[in-house]
Amino acid sequence: MARAILFGLVFSLFSATAFSFVMAQDRPGCADHTLIPRIAGTQIVACQVQDYGEGQFHASMADRELNLELAEGPMTRLVYLGPTSLSPLGAVRNYQKAFADLGTVEEHFSCKGRECFNNLASIFVWAKERQMETDLGVDQYLYHQPKYVADQMYWYGTVTGDTGDYVVSVYAAKRSPKDDFMDRRKFQAGQVFVHLDVVQTAAFEATLEVVEADDITESLAETGKIALYGLYFDTGKHDLKPDSAATLGAIAGAMQAQPALKLYVVGHTDSVGSVDSNQALSERRAGAVVDALVAEHGLDGDRMLPIGVGLAAPVATNATEAGRALNRRVELVQR
Fold this sequence. Notes:
The chain is of the alpha+beta class. It has helices at residues 2-19, 88-102, 120-125, 213-223, 245-257, 275-297, 321-327, and strands at residues 43-58, 68-82, 103-112, 149-161, 164-175, 192-200, 225-228, 263-268, 304-310, 329-334.
């Protein structure tokens, strides 16, 4: 028994000494996802956080090709470095448990070993356009060759929970001892890299103040127009959603206070889709606003002329979702 205790003490001291090599601090500016805890003993070596981004997820191995699915929303990408005692399977199972704690989990795709190509990290997870800065010294060569990767696993799915809906993926692989960068790397052969991607799926909402009738009256008096972002439509549709009621009420209030006021109701879109389809959609949306004001607030339809200009008059870049959200609007223009 004494020998067993002594062995345990020696083993613990050895483990602590060896483990101190990997227990460096997290990369500055990086932190865990607020709802998904890290695996004990891992450190963050790379991160990317966006208020609104587009996540990529590998969805199948059909035809032995990459088959990507996209998800938009607040996005967090993290890369953890774990101890040699952690296995890729253990890492994936840990995160599956964390996902289950968030809500109902649905698996979309998973693979392991050569089921995920010889090196899924090189062709997708750590492809050039998806790489992040690390402090490891060999960023671009991290998964440069299949011989660097052992026991890879990938899991992708969705989580539906009380805090929101999420698209999530985990990739984990051991660093192979067959490594050409022994003198430059800041990690050991056998350590595990864990890549966690999380996108909270939600429609982007422009963070603008709620418009009141007085705001409409004032803006029309000063500039002759006002852009409205509180009129909501599903993507590609022209039916007004119920949460448009407050803005419709504000328009009606402004027009009822000024019986002589006449307006152009002008629909605008982003640049997604063709010119013709966007022009037609914007006109239908403008018409839907006029119809709602007539039907729900008793306004005279002759006081409002619906016009659609599609993507022709952006107020922001269409290169980002934030810009596209600002371009999707209805404007009131005084006649």
